[in-house]
Amino acid sequence: MNELIRKSRPEERPGPSGRRPDRSARTGRGPVGLLAAGALVAGVVLPLAFQGDAQAAATPNGGDVIANLFEWNWKSVASECTDVLGPKGYGAVQVAPPADSIKLNGAHPWWEVYQPVSYSLNSRMGTEAQFKAMVTACHNAGVKVYADAVLNHTVGVNQTSGSSYGGAAFNPAAYTYNDIPYGRADFHGSPPCPNADLGINDWNSVAQVQECQSLSLSDLNTESDSVRGKIAGYLNSMVAAGVDGFRMDAAKHVAQADMAAILSRVHDTAWGGRPYIYQEIFPGSGGQLAPAAFEGNGSVLEFTYAFKLKDQFNGNIANLKTFGQSWGLEPSDKSAVMVTNHDLERDQTTLTYNSGAKYNLAHVFELAWGYGTPQVYSGFRFGNRDDSPPADANGFVTDTNCSTNTWTCTDRNQGIANMVGWHNAAQGQAVANWWDNGNNAIAFSRGNKAWVAINNSSTAVTQTFSTGLAAGTYCDVIHGDLTATGACTGTTVTVDASGKATTTVPPGDAVALRTGVGGTTPSPSTSPSGSPSTSPSGTPSGSPSPSTTPADGTTVFYSTDRNWPAYNLHYAPNGGSWTTAPGVAMTPACTGWVKKSIDLGGATGLAATFNNGAGTWDNNNGNNYALRTGAVTVKNGVVGSGDPCATATSSPTPSATAAPSTAGASFAVNATTATGQSVYLVGNTAALGNWNTGAALPLSPASYPVWKLDVAMAAGTAFEYKYIRKDASGNVTWESGANHTATVPASGNVTLNDTWRP
Q1: Catalytic residue at 71?
Q2: Paired sense of beta strands 678-683 and 170-171, if any
Q3: Which of 80, 280, 302, 735 is catalytic?
Q4: Active site annotation includes 710
Q5: Among 2.60.40.770, 2.60.40.10, 1.10.3720.10, 3.60.21.10, what is the CATH number of 553-636?
Q6: pLDDT, mean over the chain
């Protein structure tokens, strides 16, 4: 549970004997990691619980930031997913171990949940039904669920309580757990543990760390096929409930081959693909016990990242210019990074909620820097390290109340929550435009998508910064949000034509700007060659252009690329009230589009969101769409104008799965993509969107990495085209080089086989 509590050496300090589980072995990454190839079990029939589950109807929002809601009960997690995590763009939530655990007499320390006695999903956070309802609610908000999984051990052999939160029957001294069931033969003894007392005396000994008892916790014989099967069955019960991944507690104490064998039996998730695995591996040992030795089974929690952040925020953050693997970190794609977690804040080896502004600024940096999969930790306040989370007299955790002084809801902090959207918008963009004052103030951009300045000093910093952003006035997301009318509730920053901005960063504070929240959308780094006859018509959601159409009505067209079973428009006229959720139903307009015409009663625009009527929303990364009157289009996060169906009758565009047309072009491009990206086609004709990326055509990934699409065009049409990548936030990357050219033959399709040009 936590190897951090060891005293014999700084990196392996043992904790209070028999009191708390060892958690140092936790390691993890983030939502984008996949289980190593070879762990997949071909032909596995998924449990019936997968079939028709409500959560399967929703789709993930594409984000990767994990909100670690430490020991929140299931009802509170569900509400947070719906009200905060989904709307703000968090990709996943980490929840406490959901298995039934020991229930001590009198006090109920937080570590009870890390001493399981049954694999029933009834715990001090709630019942199995409440757990499943929580997963469904999070999925409906687009948020994945990662469960903390305790696989290495059961309870301490020195425990005398025979009670649990779910009513399981067990006897710690006899190593019997009737509900699983486990008996003495299912646990390590001596041998194979080389020590008669079964304790760990040498933290560099593989045999002792992986076959002896940590903190007297009964160590499971994970070499046993029977034990492996029972653990895998527990994980599969969570997968069947919709869980998308696991934080493997004390993974350092489980042999890598044993973990691989267990994971090979785990089913694919309801949203498809392998569960995301991140393991607790506390650093300090080498060889087979070093964090890198466990990467074959997934990601690892990057403890060194948290330690180094504390060092710099208590020293000189200008040093962070080179922060990365050269600092002794695991590779970015194998790292689940954090500012702190529940063990570290108790050991005071990292920044904590008691660190004030430095704690918040470290989260801002973590979300901005782009190394690893970031976590935002929200736990409860404590006076003593073993304190229980707020609970009733029977130990059941009560609802989280962020307005009291009992919880630290860091995930809700305005600047940190808005930095999740900043992080999502910056995905795939390299750090650029670095600035520092040689001490405790830094600034940098992520390509031309986002910019941040962090002042960790006690005096204000006023500076003219190179932001990399397009000219415009931006809302500082650390201190403000966009309203329904497109106004910023906080401060704004103006970027000039050269990408420079002069602003003041208060002491212990930050300023952060990003595309889509004010300003203008930067041009792609590589645009189509030549001069398209029709310029793009999309306008950024944060700054709608003035309307030239009557101010009393609008027709909103919404792309059907999401393949939702239904489309609803939820809107508020400027200065007016929102419709009752989920809003008004949209109706088919033409191939690829639905529409809704509404009377705005004289308003000059509207704020809008879209949903499928079943809990899945297009919330524009936490910012409402700002739409003008007249005919407007929304596709892949880009707002445009005009009626997209005006040419539909003369030149329909089949879907990506349509059969080849009588005349036209068959496109195929070999293009690899990052998580959340898709490939689109755009060109110089109406059928190809007239170089408007908002009207670009999605290609089918059914033959990935080859993406395909058939487009109907008139015989003899000569055309130019290019491929683009779009991510979940609507960010566009153009392929390089000159435009492709082709001509439609007199009959049939011209077949085009291309390779993405980086």
Answers
A1: no
A2: unpaired
A3: 280
A4: no
A5: 2.60.40.10
A6: 84
